[in-house]
């Protein structure tokens, strides 16, 4: 019953000798210490010999701390991956397979073949046979295509395990045990499973041959029958459907690419072979012929001069150049007649449209039937990693059957026109009945299509989404150059959705309620709405939005406006701050909004004293509002002092969190606000209503002594969050960029 937190905190000071970042947010010092300790030892930052308690022949730093590591970051030249994949750390890797949940890559550099071998072994153990559910990649300005595709492919659960010998002295021990278990299976069951797989393959080919079959039966990706393959795995090796897709072994090899290689693949060849283009329609006879040629090709390519450690043998195999003419001919035809990427019947993840072709890359087919399907992660995050056209097509292809994926974050990847390729892969994924995607976040510098079109496109394909975030900084001058013949996504009908959180950052686009209305109508469960950097084309637009929210989204709890000029919309602002039963255009509005944000909305830019008084009186009568955020609205000292009246004795407000960051507040104004707040608390008999006050980036450094007194007295009343902000330097920076 005695807490050990102080002991672990002291151990941090003794061993780490650094101040932990965000120490106020650390809830468990034991976990924080052991995870950081493991990472520092792994990357050579911490020398265990410097502490007598750690320098003992019975103590293994990595082995003893590994069971407590749930999050690990690998960076630079992947030295940590090499160390963990070493033979002497096999037990450490086994511990991590059970404890690690989040694997991060940061600031990666190009790597050689030996490092990639170690990474393959590490990813196979931690993802395919481990518990890693999230892979995040950060800050890779010039990504190594080979390494990036390797991480993406294995995160999606693809690997030709027959190539394990090329990366390690022996196959994966877990795979070996599973193979042993399958080898002990009764011969009759193996024969029945073999007949079942053959029947499944035959049925798929017959569907391809029938003119009325769905087009996804032709797709190398979306035609893959994941569930059927999973049925062929012994029940003892099965795992839960979302997080554990274990070893769905392919039963046939298909033609994959038109390029023939006699050894290792170059990075250019790799990305070309993995790029997804219109899938060819072949008869079963032609396919069998191609398979025969492929097998002869593989036997020839594994001659005395072949590279047995070709990195991408685990993802794809290649065909002879005999077939390249056929592929080029069909691909050209497919490019000219690219199917509508918004069409619900398109089976190919990437339609080969102009947006995908702009960056080059030869045609090819990436088939999942040439690999084993292992467990895959449920969360993929890519931050500040430029994606080329070839990489986008590869990612699109992987996404098209990544049914375990629950959360996808693509942030500042320079997608441009390749956003259509990603959308094609997502649309193919949406046709899988066992798709689990619930969160999609897309952000970039330039938008290649209007924000509302992108929102409608994603939501029409994934009505089961819970969170959708679309954010762009600037509008692309070439916006609107979509593939010819494709209708606008805003015209696509949106089915009733499960959307609970919608965030849109407009690149200075006008906010047209009529375009947002179909989304709001389809999202009856919407609880959070955030609109950022939008312009209001007319004075009635905000009123129309409130009316739409009243009619369509009665469950809305959080509403946020950021960088939207509301200086001329005082009436609508007051309506939003009113009691739950609001009056909008003479209609009753039952909106139980508990958190409202007006961030950098210029509320008090040209306001009068009467407007401030109306805001205060309106909030005082609102018993449902819990959180009010007003950062960047030029409150100043006198308006801040006036806001203290919200907590007066005659107030029925339930407001407990107030954010007044970036509001030109000076120390004397904060002290006066504090004294007035103390007076109201005394009048209420010591009852403290406000619990959190945020004061970031105010001018509190102009009188340090007064600021310290105000903060000391405030902290006796509520939790105060502020920072050490140099207002003079910030003003100088502001002047320098004017």
From TrEMBL:
InterPro entries: Leu_rpt_41, LRR_dom_sf. Residues 179-206 have a biased composition (Basic and acidic residues). Residues 179-220, 327-351 are annotated as: Disordered. The keyword Repeat applies. Gene3D superfamilies: Ribonuclease Inhibitor. GO terms for cellular component: cytoplasm; nucleus. Keywords: Leucine-rich repeat, Phosphoprotein, Repeat, Ubl conjugation pathway. Residues 329-348 have a biased composition (Polar residues). Transmembrane segments: none annotated. This is Leucine-rich repeat-containing protein 41. It comes from Buceros rhinoceros silvestris.
């Amino acid at each position: 019953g005695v807490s050990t937190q102080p002991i672990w905190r002291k151990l941090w000071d003794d061993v780490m000798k650094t101040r932990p970042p965000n120490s106020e947010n650390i809830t468990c010092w034991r976990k924080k210490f052991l995870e950081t300790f493991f990472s520092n030892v792994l990357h050579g930052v911490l020398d265990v010999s410097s502490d007598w308690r750690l320098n003992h022949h019975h103590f293994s730093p990595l082995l003893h701390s590994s069971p407590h590591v749930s999050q690990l970051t690998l960076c630079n030249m992947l030295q940590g991956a090499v160390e963990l994949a070493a033979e002497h750390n096999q037990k450490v890797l086994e511990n991590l397979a059970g404890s690690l949940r989040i694997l991060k890559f940061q600031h990666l550099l190009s790597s050689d073949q030996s490092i990639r071998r170690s990474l393959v072994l590490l990813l196979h153990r931690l993802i395919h046979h481990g518990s890693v559910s999230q892979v995040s990649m950060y800050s890779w300005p010039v990504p190594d295509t080979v390494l990036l595709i390797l991480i993406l492919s294995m995160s999606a659960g693809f690997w030709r395990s027959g190539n394990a010998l090329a990366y390690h002295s022996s196959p994966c021990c877990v795979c070996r045990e599973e193979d042993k278990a399958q080898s002990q299976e009764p011969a009759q069951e193996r024969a029945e499973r073999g007949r079942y797989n053959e029947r499944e393959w035959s049925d798929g080919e017959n569907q391809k041959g029938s003119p009325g079959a769905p087009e996804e039966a032709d797709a190398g990706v979306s035609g893959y029958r994941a569930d059927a393959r999973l049925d062929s795995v012994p029940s003892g090796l099965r795992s839960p459907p979302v997080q554990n897709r274990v070893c769905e072994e392919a039963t046939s090899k298909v033609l994959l690419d038109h390029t023939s290689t006699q050894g290792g693949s170059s990075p250019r060849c790799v990305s070309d072979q993995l790029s997804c283009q219109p899938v060819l329609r072949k008869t079963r006879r032609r396919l069998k012929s191609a398979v025969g040629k492929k097998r002869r090709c593989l036997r020839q390519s594994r001659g005395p001069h072949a590279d047995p450690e070709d990195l991408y043998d685990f993802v794809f195999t290649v065909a002879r150049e005999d077939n390249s003419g056929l592929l080029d001919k069909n691909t050209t035809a497919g490019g000219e007649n690219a199917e509508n990427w918004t069409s619900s019947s398109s089976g190919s993840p990437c339609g080969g449209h102009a947006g995908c072709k702009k960056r080059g890359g030869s045609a090819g087919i990436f088939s999942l039937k040439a690999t084993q399907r292992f467990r895959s992660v449920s969360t993929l995050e890519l931050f500040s990693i430029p994606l080329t056209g070839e990489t986008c097509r590869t990612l699109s292809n992987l996404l098209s059957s990544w049914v375990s994926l629950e959360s996808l974050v693509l942030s500042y990847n320079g997608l441009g026109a390749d956003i259509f390729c990603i959308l094609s892969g997502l649309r193919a994924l949406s046709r899988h009945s066992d798709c689990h995607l619930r969160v999609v976040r897309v952000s970039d510098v330039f938008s290649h299509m209007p924000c509302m079109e992108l929102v409608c496109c994603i939501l029409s394909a994934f009505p089961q989404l819970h969170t959708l975030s679309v954010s762009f900084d600037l509008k692309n001058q070439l916006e609107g150059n979509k593939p010819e013949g494709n209708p606008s996504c805003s015209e696509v009908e949106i089915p009733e959705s499960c959307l609970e959180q919608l965030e849109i950052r407009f690149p200075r686009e006008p906010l047209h309620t009529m375009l947002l209305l179909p989304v709001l109508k389809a999202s009856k469960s919407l609880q959070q709405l955030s609109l950022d950097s939008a312009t209001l084309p007319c004075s009635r637009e905000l009123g129309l939005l409130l009316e739409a929210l009243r009619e369509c989204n009665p469950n809305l709890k959080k509403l946020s406006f950021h960088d939207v000029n509301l200086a001329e919309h005082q009436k609508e602002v007051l309506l939003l701050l009113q009691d739950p039963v609001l009056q909008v255009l003479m209609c009753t509005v039952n909106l139980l909004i508990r958190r409202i944000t007006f961030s950098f909305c210029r509320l008090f830019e040209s306001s009068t004293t009467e407007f401030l008084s109306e805001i205060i009186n309106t909030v005082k009568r609102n018993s449902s509002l819990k959180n009010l955020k007003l950062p960047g609205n030029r409150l100043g000292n006198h308006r801040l002092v006036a806001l203290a009246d919200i907590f007066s004795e005659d107030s029925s407000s339930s407001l407990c969190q107030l954010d007044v960051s970036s509001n030109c507040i000076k120390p004397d104004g904060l002290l006066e606000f504090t004294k007035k707040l103390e007076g109201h608390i005394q009048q209420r008999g010591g009852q403290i209503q406000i619990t959190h006050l945020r004061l970031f980036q105010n001018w509190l450094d102009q009188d340090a002594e007064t600021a310290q007194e105000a903060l000391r007295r405030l902290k006796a009343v509520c939790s105060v969050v502020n920072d050490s902000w140099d207002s003079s330097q910030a003003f100088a920076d502001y002047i320098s960029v004017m």
